[in-house]
Fold these 2 entries.
Entry 1:
Amino acid sequence: MDDKILHLKKEIEEKLSAISELSELEQIRVSYLGKKGSITALLKGMKDLAAEQKKAFGADVNRLKEFAAAQIEAKTAEMKKKQTESEIASMPVFDISTPVSGKMGSYHPITLVQRQCESIFRSMGFTVEDYAEVVTDYECFESVNIPKHHPARDMQDTYYLENGQLLKTQTSAAQNAILRKYGPELIRNGTPIKAIFPGRCFRNEATDACHENTFFQMEGMMVGKDISISNLIYFMKTMLSEVFRKEIKVRLRPGFFPFVEPGFELDISCLICGGEGCPSCKHSGWLELCPCGMIHPNVLREGGVDPDEYTGFAFGLGLTRLAMMKYGIKDIRDLNSGNLRSLCQFTDDE
Ligand code: FA5
């Protein structure tokens, strides 16, 4: 082999073993294999050789060229691997056992009372149901004994959608579906229907300290043999004493709702002003919290349950107002405000 070729081979090996930076490799590649590189110059110079020398010299130079390219490629891979390893080694160590400091967030006060109510009713054998927010006129009104043009519709100024559906104004919109879901088991085995169904409601209302256009209710129903007002009062009392865990004044007065007969308004003495009267209770000292009553026979019949055999109660708890009373929130509008400083201060007391 030509001396020049042997010399270049040795030189390449020495240079590659001496480098410390990845960027130096490109300089080496260019200086041997680039347009003006030493190996390229050897190939170009072949045109001046005698024909008998060309073949052997050409083969040697090409072998050198392949050798240089392979060595540079191998060195590049080796250096990249080293670089990655040293980057990993210098990364900060993530210790999963390190305690996380600081507050991670909190539940909205309505979520807190909703969860508390769900757990109270679950412990008394009720199932918790979810229901849609966009419903039909039939679900929200007709199935609960409020036919078209009934004056009771005026009490719930409704947002109608272009497709004829509406944003539910009351959680009572799920009553018919619950009766149809659990009614067959009641009829087959006598298992009473016991369900609660919390949900968001919408009404086109002027807002004030105790009215919002978007608020939460939690409906509850129990249907079976010989269910009476005593059962209703028992469950209402248990729920309120568990939620407030202190003595609160309650009053039950007649109330009209087309889907119950008899119907009641269950009010609690305003906990913001202690019953003295304030904007949160419209200066009456009382807050309408949980209308209720015995389910109207038309509603049971429409849900496939025979009103001559079965009776039941229903209630429509104002969850948003319950959160106000439980946490001493004076203005209902604070609950939809997204103001984290005021909303993050509440905790679950269970
Ligand atoms: C109803 O919506 C009936 N569906 C409740 C019911 C269910 C009665 C089952 C009988 C049997 P009412 O419109 O009064 O009733 O609303 C019920 C509760 O929701 C009120 O007592 C109140 O606590 C809450 N509520 C009603 N409107 C608003 C509002 N605009 N802002 C905040 N809370 C409201």
Note: Residues 97 and 104 are 17 Å apart (CA to CA).
Entry 2:
Amino acid sequence: MANDKVSIHGAWASRWVFILAATGSAVGLGNIWKFPYMTGMYGGGAFVMMYLVCIFMVGLPIMLAETLIGRRGRQSPVNALRTLAIDSGASPKWSWAALMGMIAALLILSFYSVVAGWSFDYILSMGSGEFTGVSGGAAGAAFGALTADPVRLTLWHTLFMVITAFVIARGVVAGLERCLRVMMPLLFVLLLVLLAYSMTTGHFMQGFHFLFDFQPERLLDGVLAAMGHAFFTLSVGVGAIMVYGAYMPKNASIGGTILTVGILDTLVALTAGLALFPIVFAAGLEPGAGPGLMFVTLPVAFGNIAFGQLMGTVFFVLVLIAAWTSSISMLEPAVAYLVERTQRSRVLVTSVLALLCWVVGMGTVLSFNLGAEAKFFVFADDGFHLFQWGAEGGRNFFDTIDYLTSRILLPLGGLAFAIFAGWVLKREVVRDELAMKSPLLFSVVYWLIRVVAPIGVLIVFIAELSK
Ligand code: PHE
């Protein structure tokens, strides 16, 4: 049975716009900020290897599942799951998985906006030459001064939330599609400029070996992190890709499209690594610096090489654009849902939700300064504390939300979506949506969605909880 429904929120002009949108969602701070620093922390090539396995065996099948659920349902993720579950004779409570994902996406947005906001600060300081000739100590101090200043952090966090809400409030076609058509090509051009530049630093091969030579003994170090990151970087498990799927034209092939998105996302992460590590090595810095890698070592690197001022500014513009096209996809599932449910205007719903995320984001702002001692999830000797001021070894607010989303909510959401597409939806529905020419290919893909992806998530999930 063909499904000719369209979403009340609008539709992308073509399959290409879906690719732009899904790639825009996928490519973000995860690729440019998290991926390089995690690779540095978990031993280079070994982490890259596990990450690639997780992307192709688990991440992409789940992305496929989300897209087909969204396009079949033609509604916000919550209502898509509810309607499709009822149509398939299953419990409407399946929609809770999407509800959880929607909340996870808002939680991610709350801290994402804070970190993305830093790039505003860095565009200004890079562009004005503040980092020219800077030493490692001075760059560290500059980063420390930024994160220690709640007012400055709040300002950039607010600005970023406003530009995110602005695009969403204008709607799917006038807001999202228009923004993406300009930003995504620009992002690719900027990235290629940076890559070309890093090839001239004379340390390109050193960066290359760091990313691709792997020490087998480190393979298992980063597997849990790699799985969580695979979800994060592909934007799966929260309904972001699902809601974009709801705006996808019926005649577009889902399989080829998702593969394109997955490959583009991976290429951007690897290119970001290839562009950044040579610069880090050229400046004689350490790759394992952790989350500060981008904001501390890179200004030093850019500040001490030819054309660094220009290239550094270009880099932080790139970060901002990438983060922007991702953050809109975190807000859209909830906005679509509340517009459907309350029949209120998109502008009103967007404003309320953005304000809510902004407030939660203030917790992240404060976790870098005044509230740094507020620790959550502390497993202390005398038992489990949910919250303790100044405790050793606990996670602060930002770390808690990051952990809760990447390591728990995203994998759980992804698991639920894969099981829903694989076991609740009828095989004919999946076959009709995927519309693959080769029956063999369909069987393989269907098996990845039904069996491989859920088992992969479960293994990693259980390993994580029993750590
Ligand atoms: N994929 C985005 C990134 O890599 C983050 C994201 C997660 C976006 C979840 C939407 C939903 O930065």
Note: The radius of gyration is 21 Å.
